[in-house]
UniProtKB/TrEMBL annotation, chain A:
SUPFAM superfamilies: ThiG-like. Homotetramer. Forms heterodimers with either ThiH or ThiS. Pathway: Cofactor biosynthesis; thiamine diphosphate biosynthesis. Keywords: Cytoplasm, Schiff base, Thiamine biosynthesis, Transferase. The active site is at K96. Residues 3-248 form the Thiazole synthase ThiG domain. Belongs to the ThiG family. Its main location: cytoplasm. Gene3D superfamilies: Aldolase class I. This is Thiazole synthase. It comes from Fictibacillus fluitans. The lineage of its organism: Bacteria, Bacillati, Bacillota, Bacilli, Bacillales.
UniProtKB/TrEMBL annotation, chain B:
Coiled coil: none annotated. Gene3D superfamilies: 3.10.20.30. It comes from Fictibacillus fluitans. It comes from the Bacteria. This is Sulfur carrier protein ThiS.
Length: 254, 66
């Protein structure tokens, strides 16, 4: 069971809703992924297009816990405003704090992320900051009282997987709140690896929405995350430099 | 009445509240979230929030994102 603030989930996959080829593929991918948490962004409505579809309705979003993000924010104040707009929907209390400091790498600004998280905690939000994989930053965010910490595996949308597994495992080791590896996951192997390192969950988007077959990849990610979690719980064997025979060495018939 | 809606200056007639404006723009039931002069309104406030000439209105919603 994944517990974030007052919420409980049996799925450990958090799925983003950006860049799917169309609503039908997206709905099916979301469905087969088994996710219970969907992320969203907050943007201006096109006031000149009354026929635009209601995104949440198209996705059957009432079945899911919504995790809006503050993407687009460059400062803590901008992130807080977006978070409050999201909460005004009356549909959610969780917020993914995302304050981007550099638009080439899309790496999060640690100082503004800390500031935004502190303000939003004081406002009563359930706060999940997207952060770099810095171990001390993760500790400082936890000390503030955030409800989960979401270190990036690698830059958003890069598909590079976990670049610094040592840092992710150190963050997991010190944390007493859920650790959700967010951003940069490219393949099911990456997602399983995150879970084997002890992460409590994985948040991904492009790895599914950008796959040749998003629905099939959604299923693959679901299974990878389940397998990785089971592997972590089972406790893997230590790595050794030389072989150890699996078959008995005695009793050979010669 | 002149309003600035999502950065567009527009002239509206027969609109008194934020709720009226959303209906006028045919955006009712589409999950609109409204900020009036930089003050965020809850859904239940839309019907009572009275608009005045020159007001700045931001209308946002959830879109796909990760």
């Amino acid at each position: 069971m994944l517990k974030i603030g007052n919420h409980e989930f049996s799925s450990r996959l958090l799925l983003g809703t950006g860049k799917f080829p169309n609503f039908d593929v997206q709905k099916e991918a979301v469905n087969v992924s088994g996710t219970e948490i969907l992320t969203f962004a907050v943007r201006r409505m096109n006031i000149f297009e009354p026929d635009q579809p209601n995104f949440l309705e198209k996705l059957d979003a009432s079945k899911y816990t919504l995790l809006p993000n503050t993407a687009g924010a460059k400062t803590a104040e901008e992130a807080v405003r977006i978070a409050k707009l999201a909460k005004a929907s009356g549909l959610c209390d969780m917020i993914k704090v995302e304050v981007i400091g550099d638009f080439k790498t899309l790496l999060p600004d640690p100082v503004e992320t800390l500031r935004a998280s502190e303000i939003l905690l004081n406002e009563g939000f359930t706060v999940l900051p997207y952060a770099s994989d810095d171990v001390l930053l993760a500790k400082k965010l936890e000390d503030l009282g955030v409800h989960a910490i979401m270190p990036g595996a690698s830059p958003i949308g890069s598909g590079l997987g976990i670049i610094n597994p040592l840092n992710i495992s150190l963050i997991v080791e010190q944390a007493t709140i859920p650790v959700i590896v967010d951003a940069g996951i490219g393949s099911p192997a990456d997602a399983a690896f995150a879970m084997e390192l002890g992460a409590d969950g994985v948040l991904l988007n492009t790895a599914v929405s950008g796959a040749e077959d998003p629905v099939k990849m959604a299923k693959a990610m679901k299974l990878a995350i389940e397998a990785g979690r089971l592997g972590f719980e089972a406790g893997r064997i230590p790595k050794k430099r030389y072989a150890t025979a699996s078959s008995p060495l005695e009793g050979m018939s010669v | 009445m002149k309003l600035v809606v999502n950065g567009n200056t527009m002239e509206v007639a027969g609109v008194q509240t934020v709720g009226d404006l959303i209906k006028e723009l045919k955006l009712a039931g589409k999950g609109a979230i409204v900020e009036l002069n930089e003050e965020i309104l809850s859904k239940s406030e839309h019907a009572e929030a009275v608009l005045a000439n020159g007001d700045k209105v931001e209308i946002v919603h959830f879109v796909g994102g990760g």
